[in-house]
């Protein structure tokens, strides 16, 4: 009984916080919109401000999921074109780069429809891209993101290696030329709270959450890395079945 009351209070508290955070985000969007109006009227480029608004909307979408998470309610999913989501995440990271990192996108998978929660996948990609940038901090580097369809004939072998059900997947590959990861750590980095960035406080939850979200979508994330040379993270997601 007491436990039940505790859960209800936690839920109400979570809902209250979401409500207040969304209030503040709506204000931020309101201010951004008036700034956009002024910029448009004076012929200034408001592209970056539109992106800031989009990021704010995505943050709102994510925090709104928190009470549902506490109540174990699944988020509604829909068919989304993942290449567009990948491009948007890369643009967001590229816009805030402070180091001289080059970015490349090869979004080559023509079949890119996945049945998914877009906000969650966006967040996962953002985590992987942010890590890649962090790994190249303070030096030149290249961040490449590519999508490809896993050919049917490879499906069985790759799926077995990845612990996935045999079917068609899209693979999103995020490669950096950063510090790399020692072979003894390539699995540990996915543990909750494992962090190694020395000069800032990471939560160590980025990869844990990203893998959990991708696994909830029937996929997986694996990494290949060479210490001192760089890393590639491969995000596998099932391609949605075409409607009958
Ligand atoms: N691209 C990468 N190159 C090298 N090491 C990486 C890379 N991505 C992740 N790591 C290692 O994995 C660790 C865990 O990453 P994770 O995203 O889970 O947490 P974090 O980045 O440390 O913290 P937070 O995500 O909260 O900022 C990192 O601290 C780092 O040691
Ligand atoms: Mg991280």
Give short descriptive properties of this protein.
single chain; 244 residues; alpha+beta; Heat Shock Protein 90; five-stranded mixed β-sheet; two-stranded antiparallel sheet; globular; binds adenosine-5'-triphosphate; binds magnesium ion
Level of helix content?
A: 40-55%
How many angstroms separate the termini? 48 Å
Q: Give the distinct bound molecules.
A: adenosine-5'-triphosphate, magnesium ion
* CATH architecture level-2 label of the largest domain: 2-Layer Sandwich
Residue fraction in strands: 15-25%
Give the strand tally. 7
Query: Mean pLDDT, nearest integer?
Result: 88
What form results from the Cα inertia axes?
A: globular
Give the name of the CATH superfamily of the largest domain: Histidine kinase-like ATPase, C-terminal domain
Number of domains: 2
CATH topology of the largest domain: Heat Shock Protein 90
Tell me about the biggest sheet? 5 strands, mixed
Strand order of the largest sheet: 2-4-5-7-6
Concise structural overview:
This protein has 244 residues and is α+β, with helices and mostly antiparallel strands.
Explain what this protein looks like in three dimensions.
With 244 residues, this protein is of the alpha+beta class. It has two domains: 2-70; 78-238, Histidine kinase-like ATPase, C-terminal domain (Heat Shock Protein 90), CATH 3.30.565.10. It is 48% helix and 20% strand. It has seven helices and seven strands; from the N terminus they run αααβαββαβαβαββ. The longest helix is centred in the first third of the chain and has 40 residues, at 2-41. The chain is globular and about 50 Å long. 23% of the residues are buried. The site of adenosine-5'-triphosphate has 22 residues, from helix 5 and helix 7.
């Amino acid at each position: 009984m007491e436990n039940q009351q505790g859960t209800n209070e936690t839920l109400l508290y979570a809902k209250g916080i979401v409500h207040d955070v969304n209030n503040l985000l709506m204000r931020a969007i309101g201010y951004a919109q008036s700034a956009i109006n002024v910029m448009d009227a004076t012929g200034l480029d408001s592209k970056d401000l539109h992106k800031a608004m989009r990021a704010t909307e995505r943050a709102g979408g994510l925090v709104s999921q928190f009470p549902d998470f506490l109540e174990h309610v699944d988020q509604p999913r829909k068919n989304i074109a993942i290449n567009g989501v990948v491009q948007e995440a890369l643009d967001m990271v590229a816009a805030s780069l402070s180091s001289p990192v080059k970015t490349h996108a090869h979004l080559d998978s023509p079949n890119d429809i996945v049945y998914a929660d877009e906000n969650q996948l966006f967040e996962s990609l953002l985590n992987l891209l942010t890590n890649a940038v962090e790994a190249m901090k303070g030096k030149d580097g290249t961040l490449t993101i590519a999508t490809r369809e896993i050919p049917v004939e490879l499906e069985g072998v790759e799926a077995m290696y990845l612990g996935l059900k045999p079917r068609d997947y899209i693979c999103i590959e995020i490669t950096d030329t950063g510090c790399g990861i020692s072979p003894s750590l390539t699995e540990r980095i996915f543990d909750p709270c494992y962090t190694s960035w020395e000069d800032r406080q990471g939560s160590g939850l980025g990869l844990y959450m990203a893998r959990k979200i991708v696994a909830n979508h029937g996929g997986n994330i694996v990494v290949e890395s060479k210490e001192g040379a760089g890393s590639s993270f491969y995000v596998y997601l099932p391609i949605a079945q075409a409607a009958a």
